[in-house]
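Our consortium's second objective concerns turning raw sequence data into structural hypotheses that experimental partners can test. To show how far this objective has progressed, the report includes one record in full. It was chosen at random from the queue rather than selected for favorable results. The single chain below, 149 residues long, was entered without modification.
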Amino acid sequence: MNRLTFLFSSCFVLCLIGCGDPQLHQVTGKVTLGGKPYQRLLVYMRPIDEQVDKFRMGVGETDAKGVLTLRSSAGDGLASGKYRVSFSCMVPKGNDEMGLNPNEKHDDNPKLITEELVPLPYASDIDSPVEFEIGGSDPNEFVFDIPSE
């Protein structure tokens, strides 16, 4: 009976060691476009060498000063690894905001026509040349100025 208890205990400990969730690392930083900050400039981080899962797919947005807040579905931060970074910054087309309330998000107004400010390849999930490695100490600081053309 002792051997059975030992075997069961050993298997249980090994399962606990192998089944843990990866540690999330906080990602902070600043992102601008052509040197200018934009509120709600979106930043996407997708793993290069790993499968996308709730620990390894990040999305964030900037505030009016360009300060980035990024999170994954698992919480604040991402698992260690190498990520491809792409961007999106949708703004009202032209200067006509069609009566948009300053507190309303652009995508809340179905009549608003928008345009993407981020040029290719930086707006591409696949072809963006921007990579970022996450790991080690927190926070991992991502600072980037997207070329405007």
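The partners drew two points from this record. Helices lie at 2-18. The CA atoms of residues 13 and 19 lie 10 Å apart. Both points have been shared with the crystallography group to help prioritize constructs.
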